[in-house]
Amino acid sequence: MKVPRVCSRFRSGSGCRLFLVALACLAGCVSASATVTVLFTSTATVATNWGNSDDQGGERLTWGVIIDTTGNGFLSTYLPSGVDYGQAGAAQALSTPGGLPTDDVLVLASSTMSLTTTTNDGAVIGMNRVLNVTNIPTLTRGITPGDAFMIVWFDRTQGGAVTPATTAVAGDRFGVFADASFVIPQDAETRSYFTPFAGPDPLKLMNGTFVPEPSAALLSLLGAAALVRRRR
Predict the structure, then answer these.
(1) Under 8 Å between Cβ of 144 and 130
(2) Using one digit for the tens of pLDDT, what is the confidence trace for 125-142?
(3) What is the 3-state secondary structure (H, E, C) of the chain?
(4) Among 25, 44, 199, 231, which is most exposed with the fewest C-beta within 10 angstroms?
(5) How confident is the model at residue 215 (pLDDT cuts 50, 70, 90)?
């Protein structure tokens, strides 16, 4: 076997053991850094028409994917805490409206949406489109091949004039788009998901809103109750 021959070069058994430990660590580091890429737009198929909070699809919005790492489905909303629109490519853990951790992970695309410059596939010039999310880190926060994911987009731009701040806050709007074909590919794979976007794309609306932190919501309720008592 190859390993014994390599180990035979060491003068002691401890040297061989150290070599094997180093080899195992190297293998672990390589596997832990595995990434995948998901594609949604090609020259023939264009994934367009992602509406902002005004139901307009012409802005360069921040977007990415939310991954369900245990297969128990997605929530309809989340807390904004821990979400940073400027952290592209990072695996960001999401929390329930009650402040509990979830198994859902947000990974943002490296750039905002681009604007369509072609009429291929029924696209409209000037309409926003999503391209790809590169370097999704598998083996991070439980992300593994086969996990379901959905596209998510926000009524924000990264560092733009519309929203200079990058941290999510309660009330921020977002939309989601899911399809049965959306599953995380195998490690180091680049996979295309063009079928859901074949032909003219209808306007996809924002249907979600980040909820307030539980403590903030409680304070709001207490304030409202106090106001009612004063009016009485």
Answers:
(1) no
(2) 999 999 999 999 998 999
(3) CHHHHHHCCCCCHHHHHHHHHHHHHHHHHHHHCCEEEEECCCCCCCEECECCCCCCCCCCCCEEEEEECCCCCCCCCCCCCCCECCCECCCEEEECCCCCEEEEEEEECCCCCEECCCCHHHCCCCCEEECEEEEEECCCCCCCCCCEEEEEEECCCCCCCCCCCCECCCCCEEEEECCCCCECCCCCCEEECCHHHCCCCCCECCCEECCCCHHHHHHHHHHHHHHHHHHC
(4) 231
(5) low
Whether residue 218 is predicted with pLDDT greater than 50 in this model: the reply is: no
What's the pLDDT score for residue 158? 65
Q: Judge contact between 150 and 181, C-beta under 8 A.
A: no
**Tokens encoding 157:** 């731009």
The 10s digit of each residue's pLDDT in 51-63 is 999 999 989 999 9
pLDDT of residue 29: 47
Task: Report the percent of the chain where pLDDT is more than 90.
Answer: 66
d(Cα 196, Cα 190) in Å, to the nearest integer?
A: 17
Q: Which two tokens stand for residue 76?
A: 């309809």
Going by C-alpha positions, the residue among 205, 178, 222, 219 that lies closest to residue 49 is 205
Structure token pair of residue 63: 């977007």
Tokens 């309409």 correspond to: 127
